[in-house]
Specification:
Number of domains: 1
Order of helices and strands: EHEHEEEEEHH
Bound molecules: coenzyme A
CATH superfamily: Hotdog Thioesterase
Number of strands: 7
Strand content: 25-35%
CATH architecture: Roll
Number of helices: 4
Radius of gyration: 18 Å
Largest sheet: 5 strands, antiparallel
CATH topology: Thiol Ester Dehydrase, Chain A
CATH class: Alpha Beta
Oligomer: single chain
Shape: globular
Length: 174
Amino acid sequence: MPAQPVADSDVPAERTVDYSSVTLSQVIMPVHAGPGGAYAHGGEIIKLMDTAAGLAALRHCQFSVVTLRVEGINFLHPIRVGNYVEVEAKLTYTSRSTMEIQVQVTTEDVKIAKKWEALTAYFVFVALDPDGAPQEVPPLIVRNESERQLFQAGEERHNTCRIDDHYRTLCAID
Ligand SMILES: CC(C)(COP(=O)(O)OP(=O)(O)OC[C@H]1O[C@@H](n2cnc3c(N)ncnc32)[C@H](O)[C@@H]1OP(=O)(O)O)[C@@H](O)C(=O)NCCC(=O)NCCS
């Protein structure tokens, strides 16, 4: 008998922030270390962030999605081999075909029970149709003041990018 899904995910008509939010967890092992061996390779962390953001975007729109832009990668706290890392991704803004996702990374030294904010960055994904052209996505429904403020900030970033011919280098966040 074919296996049955554990749960049918009813896709709501209204796509809220909570609906598509994603958390990925990873213990940083030696294979994830940079050349020095003691700390995580930054690229490994960025890959986790890209994956979490892409999954949130995919859950929101259910079309093929690709990374279009990444803003604000500043490592604030070192991530060591042996740390337990959590990557939280949530949509902050949608336009016609693009979705902005806030990705926050915390790192925990489990042995001493201390947790730090390692970094926060904003990933922009674009939905593509089967021919690779930008595809319209469902609007993001915001439900509280915090979500409204994040949406507004995302809209400002998007509009700044759109009005400047040189947005690839000049569209910086505060
Ligand atoms: C995504 C892509 C198809 C956009 O092409 P385009 O000709 O600029 O298309 P459009 O002008 O219609 O723009 C589509 C959307 O992207 C936005 N956009 C395009 N370039 C952008 C940038 N650098 N930063 C932010 N937004 C950008 C536009 O504002 C528009 O947003 P909206 O539809 O939500 O209003 C094209 O840039 C691409 O294929 N990039 C590669 C993406 C990829 O493969 N990523 C994975 C790499 S491994």
